[in-house]
Design goal:
This protein is of the alpha/beta class. Strands 3-2-1-4-5-6 form a six-stranded mixed beta sheet, sandwiched between helices. Strands 7-8 form a two-stranded antiparallel sheet. Strands 9-10 form a two-stranded antiparallel ribbon. Helix 7 runs parallel beside helix 8. The longest helix is centred in the middle third of the chain and has 22 residues.
């Protein structure tokens, strides 16, 4: 009999590739949202304490896990923490993250004073998603063996209809790269953008009922890696809002007009497409049909 060759090395590499996670965490730092949420059960300081405990638990699950935190403001977004490049002790992770967040909030506030935009209270979710996907693409090109990436959006601000196109492009890019987008909504209303992001990419959408126990929600739902999710019963969305935003007024609409050339969406009929310049035709409803003309017989 020929001896059976052991396959411990290849199996071990396979398990490590499936078990190691690259978690991209997008933190919403919108001051307008947190100033209103400060009067409720969750303040920004309590929120950060829950997030820091969650990040430490993810890093403790596997010593090869990597966590990257991206801050999402109303005027800009930036990387604030990377566990692979930090090089700090576990007890210094919180200090490094909080210091970077303070610097980012000050920078975002200064940009808001210089370039203020009226009527927009939403965060730059499209920018933070793009930065997360760029980081993930750089990891993909680093070598054949890399951790399994996923994105976690800790969001509370309302949706910005002006970001519809950019967010949908980021969602389809994540779907093509097989990167799930998890969403943990902290606001009072559901987010149609994040519902579509989690549904299209195969992620988890969750709106916690009690924000005081945010760490329990994060650790039980979002701490598991992609391989372990095959054996878990994760929350499923009750309903997904698939409504789109029009390109002309940036409003969420139920019915509209779609350009057959570039698929732009409009809430009202236009002569030309503002995106590609195509000329729209007008339906001729008053012209009699040929079938009706054939039915008419001349009078004798």
């Amino acid at each position: 009999m020929t001896p059976v060759q052991p396959k411990l090395s290849t199996d071990f590499v396979f398990v490590i590739a499936d078990d190691v996670s690259l978690l991209m965490v997008l933190i919403d730092t919108n001051p307008f949202f947190w100033s209103a949420a400060n009067t409720t059960s969750l303040s920004f300081s309590k929120f950060l304490s829950h997030v820091v405990a969650f990040l430490n638990s993810v890093l403790l699950l596997n010593q090869l896990n990597q966590v990257v935190v991206i801050a999402t403001g109303i005027n800009t977004c930036d990387y604030v923490y990377d566990s692979a490049a930090a090089g700090a002790l576990p007890n210094q992770r919180a200090e490094s993250l909080l210091q970077k967040l303070v610097e980012f909030v000050v920078k975002d506030e200064q940009l808001g004073k210089e370039d203020s935009v009226d009527g927009i209270g939403s965060s730059l979710l499209s920018g933070s998603l793009s930065m997360a996907l760029c980081y993930i693409q750089r990891v993909f090109r680093s070598g054949p063996h890399h951790p399994q990436p996923r994105i976690l959006c800790l969001h509370g601000s309302p949706d910005g209809p002006e970001q519809y196109v950019a967010i949908m492009n980021a969602i389809f890019s994540a779907q093509r790269s097989m990167v799930p987008i998890d969403s943990c909504l902290l606001g009072a209303q559901h987010s149609a953008f994040l519902q579509q992001a989690s549904y299209i990419t195969g992620g988890v959408y969750l709106k916690p009922q009690q924000l005081d126990g945010l760490f329990q929600y994060l650790s039980t739902v979002f701490a598991s890696d992609l391989y372990s999710r095959n054996f878990l019963q994760l929350p499923k969305p009750v309903g997904v809002d698939f409504r789109a935003s029009c390109f002309c007024h940036k409003n969420t609409i139920d019915m509209g007009y779609i350009c057959s050339v570039c698929l732009s969406i409009f809430c009202k009929h236009h002569k030309n497409c503002s995106t590609c310049g195509s000329v729209f035709g007008q339906a001729q409803t008053n012209a009699p049909s040929t079938s009706n003309q054939k039915r008419k017989t001349p009078e004798t």
